[in-house]
Amino acid sequence: MSLPVLPMHDPVASPVAGSDLSPASARELHEEIRALARARDAVILAHNYQVPEVQAVADFVGDSLQLAVEAQKAAQSTIVFCGVHFMAESAKVLNPKKRVLLPNLSAGCSLADSITAETLEDWKARYPGHAVVTYVNSTAEVKALSDICCTSANAASVVRSLPQRKILFTPDKNLGRWVAAQVPEKEVVVYDGCCPVHDVLRASSVGKARAGHPDAVVIAHPECRQDVVELADEVCSTTAMLAAVARHPAAKTFIVATEHGIVHQLRQRWPDKEFVVADGCLGCRMHCPYMKMIDLVMVRDALVRGRHEVDVPPDVAAGARRALERMIAVPRDA
User: Fold this and answer.
1) Spatial distance between the Cα atoms of 264 and 177, rounded to a whole number of angstroms
2) Is 137 annotated for ligand binding?
3) Residue 190 marked ligand-binding
4) Would you give the distance in Å from CA 143 to the centre of its chain?
5) Is 290 annotated as a binding residue?
6) Within 13 Å, how many C-alpha atoms sit on residue 278's CB side?
7) Beta partners for 47?
8) pTM
9) 236 annotated binding-site participant
């Protein structure tokens, strides 16, 4: 089952969680942002992990792959990317003639920071003849040195599509291990990086959540550790979790093993279902601080002041664009 990127625009449906804004102020700011987006010829894209009020003000909400595609399809001359830096970089790489704005330059990514271009060059030298598959959670410089990129939604398909039997997978070790299990015909060497938000989760926490909800369906992101993945009924990307719920119509409760921001989308789509964050403490452990660094005021200021513009050097952008476009061209069932 394929689900589209979700169009948003309902400030009432999205409480201002963790914000100092009153509901009335949030509604006013929401309407101001929408008017500014029209006036500035801008499209607002938001990742599934963003805070609810930012998801609500966006034109489209989705995962990395969906938003990369949506950025290319957008007719607007300006892209406001509510996510983290590597995502805004990718949007710029794929849309070199458009202006790409990241409302908060501090929104980085620990996983992307775990590998540099120099480290990848050294790693490639140790494994000649291997194709390099790089997760999109990486810098443009690292993408530029890769044969192809992937997301959690299409990682197995990307590896399966390559003619080479030997693969270097970077930088997420948990996703790489999961991909290797899905594509056993390939020899996959995995880099030792991880997303700390997913890597912190343990099977014991999932077990406790399941003990309290014995009939629940467990849905896990493939960036989770192997012991967590082995307990899951479904392993998939964030947006694919929406489809996973649809595959279990009789289930009333779902335990979700990923950054807790996705629960907002799940509750919007399935209001009659119960969604429990797998860490057992309402998402306090499965919380990405970088993904929560953008708020409505920052989105408004990005549109008013044109900040903060993201650019990528032409030589780096050319290599990264090749790797990203190869990824986008791979069919999901390759």
Assistant:
1) 29
2) yes
3) no
4) 16
5) no
6) 31
7) 62
8) 0.90
9) no
